[in-house]
Amino acid sequence: MTTPFPFTAVVGQDDLRLALLLNAVSPAVGGVLVRGEKGTAKSTAVRALSALLPAVAVVPGCRFSCDPASPDPGCPDGPHEAGTGTERPARMVELPVGASEDRLVGALDIERALAEGVKAFEPGLLADAHRGILYVDEVNLLHDHLVDLLLDAAAMGASYVEREGVSVRHAAKFLLVGTMNPEEGELRPQLLDRFGLTVEVAASREPDQRVEVVRRRLAYDDDPDVFAARWAQEEAAVRQRIVAARELLPQVRLGDGALRQIAATCAAFEVDGMRADIVMARTATALAAWAGRTDVLAEDVRQAALLALPHRRRRNPFDAPGLDEDKLDETLEQFSGESPDDDPDPDGPGGGGGQPAPDSGPQGDGAGDARPEAGEGGQPQASGAQEQSAVRAAEPFRTKVLSVPGIGEGAAGRRSRARTEHGRTTGARRPRGALTKLHLAATVQAAAPHQRARGRSGPGLVVRRDDLRQAAREGREGNLVLFVVDASGSMAARQRMSAVKGAVLSLLLDAYQRRDKVGLVTFRGAGADVALPPTSSVDAAAARLESLPTGGRTPLAAGLLKAHEVLRVERLRDPARRALVVVVTDGRATGGPEPVALAGRAARLFAAEQVASVVVDCESGPVRLGLAGQLAGELGGTAVTLDELRADSIAGLVKGMQSGRAA
Q1: Which residues belong to any copy of the VWFA domain (predicted)?
Q2: Cα gap 37→599, rounded to integer Å
């Protein structure tokens, strides 16, 4: 087994270590969500934590890690009698992004359940993680129904597995830790709220600290055992401190003054519900215990707010996580006189809010780059086609449902009709691979004609594997909405581009809620660019769209060919995800030989592949050439004039075009 990187050897941010340690002291805090750029040692710190957790006593032979002092009365391997058990190290169980529901919660042997009435249950990862750590890397990429199951188990402390009336329950209490890179998509607000604490991590910009990161990593890679031995004393000290804090935790007093500060802080930041108040109270109590105190101070409340509230105050995905610390200090100061418990004493025992040693934190680096755009051939543009600065998007709005016609089989989402594992039952079929959703009536119907031939003599139904039928279900899928936006000089009217940007932002918000991917291709000047590769990250999308400049010639064919290439690559990555292409242009094509004919040939590629498409005609003025309508005909889609386009109705127009296409 590979020696893990020592927890105390991680360089940098203290907040990540503190949040993990507080959950080790008090799992009731509710877990940690670690957000940050790639290469910041999120996973390294989480994996290192498991080595610090105290050993757990378990009932010998119990697959569900029952505590011998108080065994679970409903344990599937029970009943167990209270007594002494054996000790084993605390486990850290990793949940892969591509895990199935059965792998997470466990699986019942349906064949034995129907034929013998036996609850033959194979435990899943939730059972393995009981009384340990359950770690989900890239939790934002996990399927929604798995996240729901995971968070329900974490909230209830138990997992329930039900298949056609046969149910199994077992205890599942664990420290839930998720990591994610926001560039790859966000979690829904209701899921964010289920994590007790959140921490934002970023690579240090201090050269000396980065040097130390590299030095320690190289030393660990050369000889993990020797490197771990160098940090054994520090690891043992933290382990002992966790044990001491756990023992002290029941004695910590949360006074009325501290409770008032917690309630006032949550009210001041307008967080929804009461979960934030409860998490803050538990976090402040754990902070006091970690610092070796039995009283909760104002500094504990402040630190608890910084860990528990940033992800709960976001009203929409465009809001950056974080807190106004000046406002936080004003609120705490206003209620500081409510009780002597709340008078901070930085020189008292355990002062400092229980911060870990400064020689700890995650490592990594990140960098960004921007590519300047030049005019066609590097030459200055004519005065009418000069590049103009980016305009601000109009205010986002709630969109109507946009859907792709027909029935798909894409990733689970909330937009278009699809055959999925979750949804309403529409029929039955033979299972392909493992049976996951039994269609009981169809299974009984398949087995019934063979009962005499199989020698049935008792009341039980003789069921063979060939009789089993999988439920065919219809639900909703997520789609790829790819915008192809003309950003040339002919489209540079500020009000026009502002409305277009506002519409795209609105659909991004809708896509975030419906679990879609959204992409943005722009064309102007000498060619086309993928301004936004297909993504679910509305933060990245908003930033790219806001900075989009306009001006230059109109290489329409280049924009369509770039969009076609994006769809080709995306089909290789995710062949089941269907796409809708929305082209926003006045239909003009300039630059290069035969630009109009070339644009027509590019458009016919989409028609040949039957890609759903809509052209938003942005041509204006008393004399109109109708070029956008011709483009829509080449695409096999429908055109909508700019006069019909309003900032609050673009999604409805797209839906209407798709409804007409389906008819």
Answers
A1: 480-657
A2: 39
Q: What span, in angstroms and rounded, lies between the C-alpha atoms of 512 and 535?
A: 10
CA–CA distance from 404 to each of 37, 408, 478, 510 (Å)? Answer: 33, 9, 10, 15
Q: Which DSSP category does 489 fall into?
A: G
CA contacts within 13 A on the Cβ side of 178: 27
CB 263 within 8 A of CB 335: no
| DSSP character at residue 183 | G
Structure tokens at 70: 């108080």
Q: What is the pLDDT of residues 183-231, one digit of tens each?
A: 776 776 667 777 899 998 888 888 999 999 999 999 999 999 999 999 9
Q: Do the Cβ atoms of 504 and 435 come closer than 8 Å? A: no
Note the pLDDT tens digit of each residue in 310-367. 888 765 555 666 678 888 889 888 887 644 444 444 444 444 445 554 444 434 443 3
Tell me whether residue 662 is exposed, middle or buried, using C-beta atoms within 10 angstroms of its C-beta: 0 to 12, 13 to 18, 19 or more. Answer: exposed
Angle at 412 between CA 411 and CA 416, to 5 degrees: 95
Distance CA 308, CA 18 (A): 12
Closest C-alpha among 356, 36, 18, 32 to residue 203? 36
Nearest-angstrom CA–CA distance, 149 and 144: 9
Which one of the listed residues 275, 313, 314, 417 is annotated catalytic? 275
CA triplet 307, 310, 313: central angle to 5 degrees?
140
Q: Which token pair is 201?
A: 């991590």
Catalytic site includes residue 275: yes
Reported confidence tier of residue 442, pLDDT bands at 50, 70, 90: confident
Q: Name, in order, each residue with C-beta under 8 angstroms of 148's C-beta and a sequence gap of 6 or more.
A: none
Contact 89, 57 (CB under 8 A): no
pTM of the model: 0.67
